Amino acid sequence: MEFKVNKTIDEINEKIKRKEVVVVNAIEMIDIVRKHGCIEAAKKVDVVTTGTFGTMCSSGALINFWHTKPKIKASKVWFNDVEAYGGVAAVDCYLGATAVKEGDPLNSIHPGRFNYGGGHVIEDLIAGKKVLLRAEGYGTDCYPAKEFEKEITISDLRDATLLNPRNVYQNYSVAINTTDKTIYTYMGVLKPNISNATYSSAGELSPLFNDPFYRTIGIGTRIFLGGGIGYVIYQGTQHDPDVERNERGLPKSGAGTLAVAGDMKQMNTRYIKGASILGYGVSLSLGIGIPIPIINEEMAFFCGVSDEDIQAYVYDYGYDYPNKISKTYGLVTYKELKSGTIIIDGKEVPTTPLSSYYMALEIAEELKKWILDGKFYLTNPACLIGQSSDYEPLKYVKC
Fold this sequence. Notes:
By secondary structure, this protein is of the alpha+beta class. The chain has helices at residues 9-17, 26-44, 118-126, 207-210, 297-302, 334-339, 357-372; strands spanning 23-25, 47-49, 52-55, 60-64, 76-79, 82-85, 92-96, 131-136, 147-152, 159-167, 174-176, 183-185, 188-190, 197-199, 218-219, 222-225, 228-235, 258-263, 272-277, 281-289, 291-293, 311-316, 331-333, 341-344, 347-353, 383-384. The radius of gyration is 22 Å and the shape is globular.
């Protein structure tokens, strides 16, 4: 099937170089597509910038703290008493965002506060704060030291790489609680008897809603990551492109995910923060922005997505979710969710976002500025991430 508009990423990069590129954020693109149709929109616009900011648990830092004197083969490592995984190499370790500080009472006093963990260490390092590094080893002929302790900052680290196995979930469930008691979950505090609902997506600004079949995003895609430049390195864990989709090709539940990486030394704590989730644990709140090249009218159509087009299923986190029961309480649109209330079983239920639409828009605007200033160029993916078997060119497009 032939497209009426055809551009390449290389051609778009030439326009960036010449300062002739046309870049809009995902909100601006909605009106352009509505006013001009997707063919004319594809001719007018070269890049659409997207953004998301929220808690992303499957995150962490791959750290090399350089060789000590004498050298140590560190089998156990802690940063501010938060344990990192030391079974990588002598002075390499992986600090998970959800690792909790030693001595935390956890949920023994319910609901636990979870004041400090891996996500907070990552934030402190990026902020340039001093962090106490402790390491233990069993001693070898080439690595004789058995203990090491020193206050360090990020500048003392040989490498500090944000390395996240699963970010940018394409869609997510809306959470309610049908039980008669308050529960504390990664979807926030859910009041009894369906008294509130929470959701977690920037909707129309979110990257994978603007490229629902992953036609431009793949291994090697350059992105905005935590205020610096990062890259998509693979499809994320739990990536599932073959979920149920609506008439626009948008998934109705969690679908695509991305694994991403970037240099922490470039990042900014405005866009990356440790998170404490009451009664659940610690995590990392992270901002990610992805440019979508408008290579044809299909991509213009997909980037014209609005909150009223996007749907999500409602699930009970009080009983069904923990018991792996897949019963749903219906579909709602992001327009309804962002209105502040949805209707469930005839009852008006207040809604609360767990992600920040304000920050998502700021990220899309910041990425837009980088491109217009010639500081950020697009990349051709080495290969695309796992595709949906439902994808056919222009199948969903209505121009």
